[in-house]
Design goal:
The complex is a heterodimer of chains A (134) and B (64).
Chain A (H helix, E strand, L loop, with lengths): L6 H29 L6 H9 L2 H17 L2 H31 L11 H19 L2
Helix pairs in contact in A: 1-2, 1-3, 4-5
Chain B lengths: L1 E2 L1 H8 L3 H8 L3 H8 L7 H11 L3 H4 E2 L3
Antiparallel strand pairs in B: 1-2
Helix pairs in contact in B: 2-3
Classes of the chains: A mainly alpha (134), B mainly alpha (64).
Chain lengths: 134, 64
């Protein structure tokens, strides 16, 4: 039950939209404030820098609520997709770190890419897992 | 696990979506159970049996 006709899916999309709007607004606001150099206290700068994470966490909460509303088949698909994605990102980053330590050829990759990689990987893995049941 | 969902649906002229609505699950779930690619939980098996007015063992064959 993931279609737009499903009330749980509609609620999820609404809450996710709110989370994304909040995330975008706080991201631009935090970048603007931090570039202004008016705030010099390190702890305050850290709090401002991580502020976009809070609406993103609200998005995670919306996803978990939606996950709990799914039937057992869709929960199984999403669970397996999450396992594949988290595992792939964990082991790829683990292997990359080993390779990076052994050579100067590879550039450093920021931790900021972990979340997008897991989310993107989850979407891709869900398509593959779902195709297996067709 | 083998099952008679497709036959039972056909007897009642129900689509997968009709059965999904009656059982309170997604059409994908019905399709996955019907094709034997996904084994339903005991509560879902009971729900499906109730929808058809049959016993679980009349629908599902664990040896299949």
């Amino acid at each position: 039950m993931t279609s737009a006709s499903n009330p749980h899916a509609r609620r999820y999309m609404l809450h996710m939209l709110l989370a994304m709007v909040g995330y975008t607004a706080l991201l631009f606001a935090s970048i603007t404030v931090l570039r202004g150099e008016t705030i010099t206290n390190d702890w305050l700068r850290i709090i401002i820098a991580i502020s976009p994470v809070f609406p993103a966490l609200y998005g995670l909460h919306a996803f978990i609520t939606f996950f709990r509303s799914m039937d057992e088949f869709n929960r199984a698909v999403i669970s397996e997709a999450n396992l594949i994605s988290a595992g792939a990102v964990a082991f790829l980053s683990f292997a990359y770190a080993f390779a990076q330590q052994a050579s100067d050829l590879l550039p450093e990759i920021g931790l900021i890419w972990v979340l997008p990689a897991i989310v993107g990987g989850q979407g891709l893995a869900a398509c593959i897992v779902r195709a297996r049941y067709r | 696990m083998k099952n008679r969902l497709k036959v039972l649906r056909a007897e009642r002229n129900w689509s997968q979506a009709d059965l999904a609505d009656r059982a309170g699950v997604s059409r994908q779930a019905i399709n996955a159970v019907e094709t034997g690619k996904f084994d339903p939980s005991l509560p879902l098996a009971f729900t499906l049996a109730e929808v058809f007015g049959l016993k679980i063992e009349d629908i599902f064959d664990p040896k299949g």
